[in-house]
Amino acid sequence: MTKYVHQPLFMTGDEFSIATFSLLDPEGELYEGAKEPDLPRDHARRLYQAMLGTRILDERMMAAQRQGRLSFYMQSTGEEAAVVGTAAALDDADMIMAQYREQGALMYRGFTIDEFMNQLFGNELDYGKGRQMPIHYGSRKLHYMTISSPLATQIPQATGYAYGQKLAGDGHCTLTFFGEGAASEGDFHAALNMASVHQVPVIFFCRNNGYAISTPSNEQFAADGIAPRAFGYHMHVIRVDGNDALAVYEATRQARKIAVEQNQPVLIEAMSYRLAAHSSSDDPSGYRAKSEEEAWRLKDPILRMQKWLTKKGWWSDEEEASEQETLRREVLDTMKRAEKRSPPSLDSLITDVYADITPELQRQYDQLKRHIRRYPDAYPRGARSLDLEVNTSTESQGEA
Amino acid sequence: MPTMNMLQAINNALDIAMAEDEKVICFGEDVGVFGGVFRATSHLQEKYGKARCFNTPLVEQGIIGFANGLAAQGSVPVAEIQFADYIFPAFDQIVNESAKFRYRSGDLFNVGGLTIRTPYGGGIAGGLYHSQSPEAYFTHTPGLKVVVPRNPYQAKGLLLAAIRDPDPVLFLEPKRLYRASVGEVPQEDYQLPIGEAEVVKEGTDITLVGWGAQMEVIGKAVELAEEQGIACEVIDLRSLLPWDADTVVESVLKTGRLVVSHEAPLTGGFAGEIAATIQERCFLYLESPITRVTGLDTPFPLVLEKEYLPDHLKIFEAIRESVNF
Asked: Cys-Cys link to A51, which of A80, A282, B105, B244 (CB 3.0-4.6 A)?
């Protein structure tokens, strides 16, 4: 109902201060008044193991990138709780539409180290057939939409995907991850507005990690974070301590309930910090102080969760050591295997552009093959897969 | 056979598609109760409910982003962009997302169910923001299909094919013809092939190629030429991406002459692509240079629209010059 005042009344967002939901303190103790979420032992361990696995994968692959074995990499360091805690609160068949720093959610759902490696090295087993840069994972089986580089495009797509889920009536929702920088894009506004107008079961999960590449949040928005924007869309919102896996888990669990049971979108803003560089091509020492990073290291989400688990008797120092050792070995072994595998076949240049290869594309491809056969040494990868064809196809033998 | 105008034919196609498959969902600005600014979606909300035919907020990038997600989920979205002039906010979603979904995921995910309908072209006193023909921007995008019908019969058959096509289709509707073009359209379901041109008229002296609203203009020019004893072969491309080069090549091998006409500006226009391909494949058979009759390299004007447009007289002159080269 419209209220009238009879003196000019200007308002700003300053009247609203959004609290942060937090359960665990940095020592892994529950805050006073905090209620432990209903998280059974095995589920809690699975959550923690995915966080730890993400950290170890990231460390090893970053090192591999520095050794020149890998062209590019992006770490999730510091944000493992925000990502894995979220995934752990969803149904495994809910769709996840991620930005690019959410490998932890995929690991939680069971993407194997082998599968990660095949994508990172773009070999013949990569589901994406070596077409995208490293870290652009996807899995249909695990309901994880293949990553796309253009920023924020997945956000309105998540609204559309979830609308389809609502019509299908299968009781599932979609969760989309993005950073606070992506919330500056028009796609973000489009997605939230459409979701609230059309009552769509979608969860918008903002990882507010302080930096969009080198741009700090105070140059990205002039407000109290991203959360207050939900008011403008008449949308449920919660801000959560992104370094506290339990709080993230509980916030997402309840958000999912709202989404699925009421067909309403929810915005979650997880306050965290990107401890690592934006990507392997970035150097944070050029734009932020070491002391700032050190302060956040004390809030390490993995350490916090580990302390809580250990206090409950659900995890031990011995398990920690042996799990780390096992994971490191597995990463190194699978990396060696993935590196040695063949590249995708030359055919993958022209498949999947359309459902069927068009005549023009086929013509261009035939021309390329003739050229490569003429200069086999100039195109090692192409020629290698052509040789296979020469051995198996009479048509190719004729041409060769 | 009933007579329909192009809007009725489009509405009829949407009706058939929605009745057949409950996954078909129509949305865009004003498409709900109102039936769209041109009424292409009239009565669909009444028949199929608000969940399957609805208004969206005014946000083109949102409409196509939403449509991409919906298509990836397995639905069959038919999204309307109210004017092709306003498709550019959605350019990123179309070019980087719709067109690349299948390729970048190695076919784990695709948005093949997606159709984007949008009215394009001039001749309605719409000025620079209600008259553009943006097809060339999209024909440079592998993974997308671009289709343009020329009359009601074509519009229905091609739209049904687009909706059922396994790839995302941009369906450009010549808005000047929405009510102006009337013809016989079967009431029942039928499809016309995407990727195949149609030889609308056979002839031996010169080949004319166009699409959409320009086909009517070409038709008038051909009448003038035939009065002068010039036998014209007329080809409607219908689909610009992929386009049917073979049919055009076959025709030019016979006639030795080619005129291509479109409303969009000359530079970078799709006629350039056709001209390049045909000179490559028909070089020794050409009797005269391939000619393009197009809009000027300016924004689309308002008051001087008639002078700007590639009309039948300009095409007729191009035919004459080509034949007398």
From this structure: A80
